[in-house]
TrEMBL record:
<dbReference type="InterPro" id="IPR033656">
    <property type="entry name" value="HisRS_anticodon"/>
</dbReference>
<dbReference type="InterPro" id="IPR004154">
    <property type="entry name" value="Anticodon-bd"/>
</dbReference>
<keyword id="KW-0067">ATP-binding</keyword>
<dbReference type="GO" id="GO:0006427">
    <property type="term" value="P:histidyl-tRNA aminoacylation"/>
</dbReference>
<dbReference type="GO" id="GO:0005524">
    <property type="term" value="F:ATP binding"/>
</dbReference>
<dbReference type="InterPro" id="IPR006195">
    <property type="entry name" value="aa-tRNA-synth_II"/>
</dbReference>
<feature type="binding site">
    <location>
        <begin position="92"/>
        <end position="94"/>
    </location>
    <ligand>
        <name>L-histidine</name>
    </ligand>
</feature>
<feature type="binding site">
    <location>
        <position position="140"/>
    </location>
    <ligand>
        <name>L-histidine</name>
    </ligand>
</feature>
<comment type="subunit">
    <text>Homodimer.</text>
</comment>
<dbReference type="InterPro" id="IPR015807">
    <property type="entry name" value="His-tRNA-ligase"/>
</dbReference>
<dbReference type="GO" id="GO:0005737">
    <property type="term" value="C:cytoplasm"/>
</dbReference>
<keyword id="KW-0963">Cytoplasm</keyword>
<dbReference type="GO" id="GO:0004821">
    <property type="term" value="F:histidine-tRNA ligase activity"/>
</dbReference>
<feature type="binding site">
    <location>
        <position position="122"/>
    </location>
    <ligand>
        <name>L-histidine</name>
    </ligand>
</feature>
<comment type="similarity">
    <text>Belongs to the class-II aminoacyl-tRNA synthetase family.</text>
</comment>
<dbReference type="Pfam" id="PF03129">
    <property type="entry name" value="HGTP_anticodon"/>
</dbReference>
<keyword id="KW-0648">Protein biosynthesis</keyword>
Amino acid sequence: MSDKEPKPLTGKQLARKPRGFPDKREALIQSQAKLVETITGVYRKWGFEALETGAFEYADALGKFLPDADRPNAGVFSIQDDDEQWMALRYDLTAPLARFVAEAGQSLGRPFRRYAAGPVWRNEKPGPGRFREFWQCDADTIGAPGYHADAEMIAMGAEALRAVGMETGEFVIRVNTRRLLNGVLDGVGASNPDTRLAILRALDKLDRLGIEGVADLLGEGRMDESGDYTKGAGLGAEEVKRVLAFAQAGADTRAETLANLTKATGDTEEGKAGLVELEAIAKALEALGAPEGDVVIDPSVVRGLEYYTGPVYEAELLREVTGDDGKTYRIGSIGGGGRYDDLVARFTGQSVPATGFSIGISRLAAALAIMDETPKLDGPVVVLSLDRDNPSVALSTAAELRAAGLRAEAYMGGANNMGKQMKYADRRGSPAVVMVGEDEIAKGTVTIKDLEMGALKAKAIKSNEEYREARPGQIEVPRGEMVEAVRKIVEAQA
């Protein structure tokens, strides 16, 4: 065999991908892109500017502010650069922002209001709805110490969720403050940093595990369904009861919840300071016009990341959906944020006030798909190839449509069967197909089939003969009127 001849294949490589790294097709990609466009449009309207940072940061710059810091590789994906410094894929969009602000220094100007959207990576155990690579869309204000800045983040987050189609009662943003939590932790004698963190992580799982599961994590520990055991915070029965009573102090209105918290937090200085924060936020939310149903004060909210120093907030979808197993459940958290005044200080040694809000784009897109609210696939117009020996007519027709600004393609599948070509157009989500056969060429016309209108009209037709005679959704127009006729169909369906 000549060296230039291709060698025969001796075996097949197993096609597989790493767990937690999803493949995305057109419908999901379009859905995520539209979500990003809509949400960043809200951020821009509120005066925020775009900032894009790289996928990698130095690992020591990221720190250990991870929701699962006890997992291998510190929860991040790291590699060593050629200068022997360790780099890691960013696990969120906030830590890179802190590095950027510290590097820019006083030249940046403050307050600095930025938004960003992009993928992040976490080296965590993947599972249903839990990925190692996913998209986030953030907004942050650096250099604004007042709690009106936190209220602005919360109200803006609610507006962004409404902009993507959420209605009253379908979502809620829950608000709490770390200082209030610190008051409770002080009240139960949790002075050890590891114990405090274990309590916060336990409370953060309240919506997923319920009271009993969180009680186990506050106490000795808990074994999950897979057999993995999580060591608890080690609190006694009375301390567990007190922490859970605080977490369940929420009421129907922000004012009622604040009144309940005044009784539940005890007399610690941190607890009193936390109440002052929440009262200031509630007042600002009222000024911003945030409805009671959109934003509630909820003492059970605990964001997992360790850099939050004040108010924390979590966005949750409330609509119930039915899964493949027939069970009804809620989708749950799709974003959140909080105040992180100490993050920039890791680089500068000086505290810098900062607050931000993040929406999980990948999770929100998945939620919309589950709720059957994914935007209709924006497919191309398909020009059928009716002459296998001479495809130039189909190619030139598609080119004419593209030149007019329409998305279009000529069928390339090789099948001369019109039925198979129509099925292809349906699968692509095409708004219309264009047919130019011998009859149309002779008459100087084209035949256009509106696939959406045709499907609607076909439902009322009872026989094949009636269908062939009616040709639902199908029109024949002069070739010179083709572009405008197709454009009308595309715009009507959009």
